[in-house]
């Protein structure tokens, strides 16, 4: 092992040990950004960037499992991304499908689709639903796969479902409006039943949410990393966790 590699490894181990005395997030949201730019900088086809990003997802989830992170939500494909060129979108869908197969092979992750499945090709929507059923109750990391996801659309869908349920039990709009509270909306979100994200990480240097978990991230801590997603290292992740552990969470106070 080269001397720089030894130094890197030692620093990573020291940083990980320092996290033992800090609180850890239960739920981490990740905007996996930078695959296309990574491919461009490498002089490679866009597809290779998306594949490198998919490989990093599997690696990242392994880190989370090792560190005891219980829930991870991965922003893999937004509703806005659905407007990309047909060829790139077809390649990306195929890579996502392959990634889902690899997640299923791991056998220790509970996978849940988060998004509007009706916007996806039928084969991909079916794969997500099948994987969710097959991995239900798995003991490891709970992985929310945000594909065909839009934060505004999630809130719209939640309100629609709430109103339809109320109508189905004989309720009326006035009574629903008068009694409506924050928890009522939360019970109809795609992530219902799960804790809100404590930490949201975005790679590639961009400092915006792009509609990711808009409702759920109201009191989340944010960490923006310059590394493009395929270049995101375990050391970068440990630094994000260290930064989170040092913050004083105020929850809006």
Topology, pairings included?
Blueprint: H1 3-18, E1 27-31, H2 35-42, H3 46-67, E2 71-78, H4 86-106, E3 110-114, H5 122-135, E4 142-149, H6 151-168, H7 173-179, H8 182-186, E5 199-202, E6 221-224, H9 234-246
Parallel strand pairs: 1-2, 1-5, 2-4, 3-4, 5-6
Helix pairs in contact: 1-9, 2-3, 3-4, 4-5
Binding site for substrate: 34-38, 50, 78-80, 84, 202, 208-210
Protein name: Isoprenyl transferase
GO molecular function: transferase activity
Describe the protein in words.
There is one protein chain. The chain is α/β, with parallel strands linked by helices. It has one domain: Decaprenyl diphosphate synthase-like (Undecaprenyl pyrophosphate synthetase). The chain is built from nine helices and six strands; from the N terminus they run αβααβαβαβαααββα. It has helices spanning 3-18, 35-42, 46-67, 86-106, 122-135, 151-168, 173-179, 182-186, 234-246; strands at residues 27-31, 71-78, 110-114, 142-149, 199-202, 221-224. The chain has a six-stranded parallel beta sheet with strand order 3-4-2-1-5-6, sandwiched between helices. Strand 3 (110-114), helix 5 and strand 4 form a beta-alpha-beta unit. The radius of gyration is 19 Å and the shape is globular. The termini are far apart. The model has no long low-confidence stretch (mean pLDDT 92).
